[in-house]
Write a structure and sequence with these properties.
Blueprint (H helix, E strand, L loop, with lengths): L11 E9 L6 H6 L7 E11 L3 E5 L2 H15 L4 E5 L5 H13 L3 E5 L14 H11 L5 E2 L3 H8 L6 H11 L4 E3 L9 E4 L4 E5 L10 H14 L4 H15 L18 E3 L18 E6 L2 H7 L6 E4 L6 H17 L3 E5 L2 H7 L3 E4 L1 H6 L2 H6 L3 E6 L2 H8 L5 E4 L16 H11 L4 E3 L9 H5 L4 E4 L1 H4 L4 H15 L4
Helix pairs in contact: 2-3, 3-4, 7-8
Length: 480
Amino acid sequence: MHPNIKNKQDFKILLIGGFDSTGGAGLQRDLEFQRNNENLRIIPTFYSYQGENFILQNIKRSYFHECMKDICHHWQNVPVLIKVGALNKAWQIAEIIHLKRRLKNVYLLYDPVVSSSRGNDFLDDDLIKTIKYKFFNEIDLLTPNIDEVYKFSGLQIESLDDYKKAKNILGVKALLIKGGHHKKHYDYFANATDAFFLNSKFYHQSFRGTGCSLGSLIIRGLSEGLYLEDAIVWAKAVLSSNLKDLTKYIELKRFVLELPQISFDGHFERLDFPSLKFNKTTFYPIVSSFIELEKIIDTGIKLVQLRIKDQLPYYIQSEIKKCLKICQKFNVYLFVNDHWEIAIDENVHGIHLGFENLQNADLKKIQNAGLFLGVSSHSYLEAAFVSQFNPSYIALGPIYHTTLKNMRFHPQGENALRTWVKIFKPPVVAIGGITLENCDKVLQTKPGFISAVQDIARSKNPNERVNRWLNKISELSPPV
């Protein structure tokens, strides 16, 4: 289902937090977004009633301690994901810290709850200090809202720079600020290596339990093998889709993803590139030179990508000129990989940009030139970033193992490709390790395009190989 999966592990999940009798927040919302099986346990910190009066009943420490002791005994040598929500006693923090230090492989998410939705405080000033100076060092991800950032740091978040300051002031390993209370409604993530803003569709209706639900979804994403950044983007996407038509409580009704917009500087820009669609999966070969293109241009292909690496600009421009001339003769769209400035000057049909190059290119200039734009993606984070530009197509790869270049991404597989085809409006390009011999399952996912590089380059007869590709796609590919 997911792209960019780490080595999957059989995680145990522990949910710790308040239990509210109305069911609108706390552990009930946490449970809504988890698989309820033998790998899941919950431990309440207190029971609350938020009706006409506010009533809070604490859990006895002896009960809490025995629960933690049992978990430590049975889960000491297995990977464990812990989500901590509402706390109201210093001894709860001490017990959780003790558990975390005893477990050998544990990840701890803390979603602080300073007060109830009615304004009743769970944390007094002394407990806030205890959490800040004793608990924060143990936390792997902190997920406060704007008001909770202020409570723990004294920082009033108003500007984009204030979001960035919060990470240093709070001193946690990773921070996800939920910005629903901010005028721009941006969320912000930062850890030691990455930082980005998230912008999801904002619903003016007030919902209880969105913070609990988001934290629980992040834990679920991690349990399904996602990297942290991808788990956060996926969790936001699932939550957004489930806020539609909501009447009272947040429920998990669908896994249709509404990806947030991603920005690395806090500035979001919507663009719109020409559509590139055919009624069936279309073969999209990639060549590295005019000589390679010349061998396959008369096969009936509809588009081709010229991918030249590590060459001087004058050589690249010369190759583009020759390729464009022969593509115009055979009515074939020519895409140029990466060299967008030369491509604009030569007025090719389209440009393909990888994730890193996309961040440095002048996308408005490409749009104003009227060119198609194709983009690469390998993960939820990258997909959320590139999709906001409404590209002509979105590529996912590598589908299978490839030796074309060093990849920091594992093979994605057909299930991840099927997810991409389902969630994106622009056509999806399947690329990476695909050959004539293994493409049947790829075609069944109905991608807009299927791409091959080495399968053609290494063939003794590229023209014959491409014709076999076209025939196979024609036979096996259903309408898209």
